[in-house]
Amino acid sequence: MSDAATPPDRPVDSLSYEEARDELVAIVARLEAGSATLEDSLGLWERGEALAARCQSLLDGAYARIAAKDAGEDDADAGVVGIVPEEGEDER
């Protein structure tokens, strides 16, 4: 991730999942390196928390969409079982 692609002052709510994840990975790397001042570390930590929450929110939304689609498909398949006669049954 380049800093130009996702400037740290860009609102977290405007980031895609991939942008938020990439920036979070970069923040973790900076914090693990230990080169930031205490004040900078606190700012990075706060930004990282917001990015993690954004990622989780987007993942929760994706999960809900998949679950809703799965539930809709179950309803669409209702009644299909038993339409095709099994071997040896009369085909009236």
TrEMBL record:
Q: Which Pfam families match?
A: Exonuc_VII_S
- Name the InterPro entries for this protein: Exonuc_VII_S, Exonuc_VII_ssu_sf
Q: Please name the GO terms of the biological process aspect recorded for this protein, alphabetically.
A: DNA catabolic process
Q: Cellular location of this protein?
A: Cytoplasm
Per UniProt, what is one GO molecular function of this protein?
exodeoxyribonuclease VII activity
Function statement: Bidirectionally degrades single-stranded DNA into large acid-insoluble oligonucleotides, which are then degraded further into small acid-soluble oligonucleotides.
Name-wise, this protein is Exodeoxyribonuclease 7 small subunit
Q: Which gene encodes it?
A: xseB
